[in-house]
């Protein structure tokens, strides 16, 4: 036993010695019981303080999904392709500005950041797609379509189960259900957007993301949506163009009709309703044909077009009159312009893109609208394309930003951000090859212009 040397012939103070021994033992005991993160160096303790969980080993995907819930919200972009995908380069360029950027809900919390890095991002990155975590791409193409080349943002994004599709048949709806089923397997996907291979984005990826999350309702271009609406003359006419056996098998069909554009944006609840359906799917599969599909015996029934009626009918049947509150019927994400011939290279200019970005005219232009400009814009988009939410580089932690985020914005949902009506996000029918370079230049010009304008508008 250690004893202090005597001083002045006095005996050592035993009470002080016992006290020192007790204090030493208590300190050792408290360190043993102390949480692991409290024994980290000071700078690591500051980082650990941002999150109650600092994983020291890799977590399972299921564990990480629970940690990321509410903090990582993604958008499923589902591409239904009939032939060649023309606009690959446009989508790759669109993703470039959001590569390596994350919301502070991810960057300021080590456990979320670790899960995001291990289970959301792909390493090593094969394209810009693997460097971002806002969007997930899903592709359905015809089974005999050649795969995308290595390095494409769509490489490896084709879903496993494919069906042969044909215009005017229920096969398009079956392909759509397969896309939804694949996208729903990822619990981080909160919005589901149906696109086609000729679609292009009209607005920056970061702004588009916030707008899709800010609107909690599903977005459709809906021609009518409930029993009251089919009482109209046009509604009744199109209702009874459906095959009679279809009505005989399901007499309530006329009360649940949903006629809409093929392309839409849905929330997770509605996506799950569509994939869970079997009854309406079987009904359409047995009875719904378009006259061009080759059935001469139904040549007079021209409007049983599954891809424009199936999803809406399923939602009406499941939601009833609640569909009025849960679906936004007149503000689709995809601008519903009818141009059967598609936009040719000579049609593509700044005027076209600006007109598309700023119109909510759902009736669509005629094929020669770009020459005559005969149709006025009914509503103007008044969006300020400021991102509305902070982002940070994935490989940096900015202490000041994180402190501000925890104090003022922590846990804020994207659904609470400003939603701008009458502001389409996508446009389709860009069919001609050789257009991506021209489109990319125009979208770059708009990106620079709107960034400057947004800064001016925000300062007012």
Automatic annotation (TrEMBL):
It is a single-pass type II membrane protein. GO terms for molecular function: glycosyltransferase activity. Residues 1-32 form the signal peptide. It is found in: Membrane. It holds the Pfam family Branch. One of its GO terms (cellular component) is membrane. It comes from the Eukaryota. PANTHER family: CORE-2/I-BRANCHING BETA-1,6-N-ACETYLGLUCOSAMINYLTRANSFERASE FAMILY PROTEIN-RELATED (PTHR31042), CORE-2_I-BRANCHING BETA-1,6-N-ACETYLGLUCOSAMINYLTRANSFERASE FAMILY PROTEIN (PTHR31042:SF145). This is Uncharacterized protein. Its main location: membrane. Keywords: Glycoprotein, Glycosyltransferase, Membrane, Signal, Transferase.
